[in-house]
Amino acid sequence: MNQLVQAFTKSILAGDVHSLMELHSSSIHSKIDNFTFYEKIIKPSMYRIGDLWEKNQITVADEHLATATLKYLLATVFTHQEALENHPKALLFCIEGEHHSLGLELANEVFKEKQWNTRYLGANVPVKDVLTFISAWRPHAIGISIGMTTELTRLKECVEEIREHHQEIEILVGGRLISNYTLDFLEKSQVESFNDLLELDAYLTDMSGQLLSQKG
Length: 216
Prior knowledge:
Elements: H1 2-14, H2 17-29, H3 34-54, H4 60-77, E1 89-94, H5 102-113, E2 117-120, H6 127-137, E3 141-145, H7 152-165, E4 170-174, H8 176-180, H9 184-188, E5 192-194, H10 197-215
Parallel strand pairs: 1-2, 1-3, 3-4, 4-5
C-alpha cells in the first residue's frame, strides 16, 4: 500500500491524470472499494503533499497543481447517483484562514456517496458568509475542515457563532488536526468530530436514515 501511496503522490505532483486513473483502475481490480481508496491512498498522499509544502520542499504552484489534479480525478472517476430534492443537505467549508481543502474534497465525496445534496464552499470562508448561506439554504448539517493549530481559536469562534444562530443544525468537524488533538470545546458545543472518512461514512449512514424517516 505504501508503494501505491508514493506512486499516487508522485503522479499528483506531476499533474499526471493518466497515471492516476491507471492507479485507481488497478486498485479497483484489486478489490479496493472507493472508501478504502479515499482513506488509504488519497488521504495519505494529500497529507504528504501538505507536509512537503509546510517544509518548503514544494512551491505554492506545486500544491495548486496537485489540488487541481485531484479535483479533476474526483470529478472524472467518482460518479454518484444524483441526490433527490428531499434528501438531506450539507454545507461544507474550511474556516477563514484555512487554505488546505483537499480533505474537504474527499469528505464531499463521502456525502455524495450517501446521496446528500451538498454545497461545497471550499477554503478560507468567513463565518459571516457561512451564516448567510445557512439562512438562505437551510442545510441539515455543516461540515468543517481544519488542519492547522494556528486556526483553533478561529474554529472555536466559528462554531460558537453558528450555534448562537442555529441550535438545530448538526456540526461535523474533521481534518488532520482532529486526528492529533482532543478538542474539548467541540464536545461542549455539541459538535461531532471525525478522525477519518470511514467514521464519517458510518455516521452519515445513521443520520441519513433518521432524517429520511422524519420526512416520511
